[in-house]
Amino acid sequence: MDHIRWDPPGKGPWELEATHFPRPMSRFTQGAFGNGFVKGFSEGTKNYGLLLDHLEPGLVNGFMYTQPVAVGAPKGAMGPPPAPILWLVTRMHPRIRSRVRAGARAISDKRWRQELETWDAVDKPAAIAKHREIQAVDVAALSDDELADHIIDCSDHVQDSVYLHHKYTIASTFATGDFLAGAAAWTGVQAGQLISLLRGTSPISRGFATDELDRAAKAILASDAGDVLHGDGPAEGLLAALAADPAAGAEVTAYLDAVRYRSVGYDVGDKSAGEMPELLLGALRAAAVGSSAAPASESALGQIRSMVPAEHVEEFDDRLTEARLINRLRDERGAYSDGWATGLARRALLEAGRRLQDTGQLTDADHAVDLEAGEAAALLRRQPGPSAAEAEQRFFWRTTKTIDDAPAFLRAMPAPPPRASVLPKGARRGAAAVDTMLANLFGVADKENTRSVLHGLAVNRGTYEGTARLVSAAEDFERIKQGDVLVTRMTSPYFNVVLPLLGAIVTDRGGQLCHAAIVAREYGIPGIVGTRDATGTIPDGARVRVDGGTGEVRLLA
């Protein structure tokens, strides 16, 4: 890697985006992601009056770097100005003053409620309808010209879906951060305990198509298909037999149709759930045994609430109500937008890849996911495009490099946000909400690890011993068996399809509000996040003990 240049993509400091893209992004995803991400995110920050306008994305050797862009700041600014200047600017700059007013209105009007209504009544149904429309296309039956047009449509759809996802980023997290900031100040209780009060308010955090999965499992148990479910043989054949069963087939088919094109990552290079039949069969088996959400603890609520000063009890109750109301939007916005659109785009690209391999334009069908949408369309139309060797080189780079091969920062580490106390009064509550949310999304443990004991943030109590299953890419999902301990860098909502199988979760990254922490609480299984070194310390297949009380992961054998 010494000969690779890591030139910053622009002025100022840049930080490696290590949460969503653990590998270089495919060319297709690069083209569809950037515009939708910035457009959606900046709309959300404006609606909530935040002084952070957006995160500017930049690509270096396929890796995404981001730079925080503050309202009114010059391009490529190294950080906020000194406190006295910031104090003056935030009270005099017209755009900042407008933002402060918008932030105050967002809180007083509880804007997130309006956005949740729009999501439920307009955006979510429209997104599902568009996904279903694209999914109904038989890509194998399209001519080459028609498939080329379809790939362009899929690219546009992914961009629209990325926009939709990030349009709701602030709405889905603001009230949660607001509750945590206030409750922590009033009680001194740690974020993990406070967040446990949200348990049970986000059904989708328990997995994609949970209702369809439960109905399919019940139909199997009520029929003679149970022997098929637990039979021997290839998973694909068993799923086909279940789908053809006279009594249970309709419900099984409905489940498979709901999940088969859901991506398990953020990139068209990541597999879709339908490409991993062992995983879907395992989910059906786990559902047939029975798994349910962990119940919320009302006794815990009473204990924490008793610690709130009397003058803040009413506000505590109000903020908790709002956080519980909006909680499901965080995972829903991905599951019903780009998580589905990305899988549908992958289906189209793989069909193109099969054809381009047959004509000798690609050496492997899988290399098609590393083509830009326009390049894939051009090759299908026998127009000039990348050579087979170039596509293969792109594929090799993307599949063999990880964020461990890229610098964490270019030029400098981005400066932290300014202290809320420096900001105008009307902006302080919003800034505290966002700062608290970010701190609990990405924080990690600071206790030193050893070769046999890792320390992280305990996100759900309980102790579990099981087989560690190291997951670094989507293809690793197929090796997960019921009762395994998932060990990975960081989960995303698109991991949801494997959740019914897990006995515990361990991650390198993430804080009390990361996805892994949420699902561990929802399922009531032990979870340790933010260990920093789990994927580099725990061998795949090792026996481990996960202690949700102490925050320790112990390597047993």
Question: What does this protein structure show overall?
Answer:
The chain is of the alpha+beta class. The chain has a domain at 205-289. It has 21 helices and twelve strands. An eight-stranded mixed β-sheet has the order 5-12-11-7-8-9-10-6. A four-stranded antiparallel β-sheet has the order 2-3-1-4. Strand 9, helix 20 and strand 10 (527-529) form a beta-alpha-beta unit. Helix 5 runs antiparallel to helix 17 and helix 10 (235-244) crosses helix 12 (277-289). The longest helix is centred in the first third of the chain and has 25 residues, at 111-135. The mean pLDDT is 90.
Cα-to-Cα separation, first versus last residue: 34 Å
**Helicity level:** 40-55%
What count of helical segments does DSSP give? Answer: 21
Q: How many strands?
A: 12
Main sheet strand line-up: 5-12-11-7-8-9-10-6
Q: Largest sheet at a glance? A: 8 strands, mixed
Mean pLDDT: 90
- What is the approximate shape? globular
**Uncertain segments of ≥5 residues (pLDDT<50)?**
none
Q: Given the helix and strand composition, which structural class is it?
A: alpha+beta
Quaternary structure state of the chains depicted: single chain
Q: Strand-residue fraction? A: 5-15%
**Rg computed from alpha carbons, rounded to a whole number of angstroms:** 24 Å
